[in-house]
Amino acid sequence: MSITKIDQKIIGYQVKQKGSESDDTLREPVQSSLPLGIDSMNEAIERPDRLVGSTYKVKTPLSEHAMYITINDMILNEGTEHEQRRPFEMFINSKNMEHFQWIVALTRIVSAVFRKGGDITFLAEELGSVFDPQGGYFKQGGKYMPSLVAEIGDVLQRHLEIIGLIDAPKLDGTKQAMIAEKRAELAAAEQASGDFPESAIVCKKCMVKAAIVMDGCLTCLNCGESNCG
Questions:
Q1: Which of 50, 59, 225, 226 could tie 205 with a disulfide, CB 3.0–4.6 Å?
Q2: Are residues 153 and 183 in the same domain?
Q3: Which residue segment(s) compose the domain that 129 sits in?
Q4: Does the pLDDT of residue 36 top 60, yes or no?
Q5: DSSP label at 38?
């Protein structure tokens, strides 16, 4: 009697009986009764009666009207130690009707990707890399937004950080100490306007207008990026 080791996942089986016409018939795989995992979540899942949502107000210099971005989350494993929030849908509302058509299309596509499951964190990066050929703008605090779509991506990024799907970027102790030292030196030499000095330029890493030249080095007071290493 020979023994055959099976190294691959079994997708079906067949039972051979002597003299039976079903010798070569492969029976259908047995369907699993386990619930869908998060990586298998798809648009067939019905919308729950209650979703937990967050609304973010966005005011840009491109319009006199604010834009309100709502992201609703489905709560998985509610009440257990494995409880997790997953984005399920996005809505954007504004009195400005100029961008209505493409905003509706964008939110429907983003919502569809949410419901597909798997890793959806790439959406924030993809939206954030969209550039407006007519030029971007600076947000309050000095952060540069290359487009209105990038602003939507920035909101999604913050939301994913809040619900714990991605980790917020943190500076190490050395860079924090360096930034504190540079800010102290600058405060003694120049009256800063707002969060960062007026003489600051846009940092190529974090896109915030917070890079200054001190001791011959271009150093960002927001993220710590320096051309001197």
A1: 225
A2: no
A3: 52-162
A4: no
A5: G
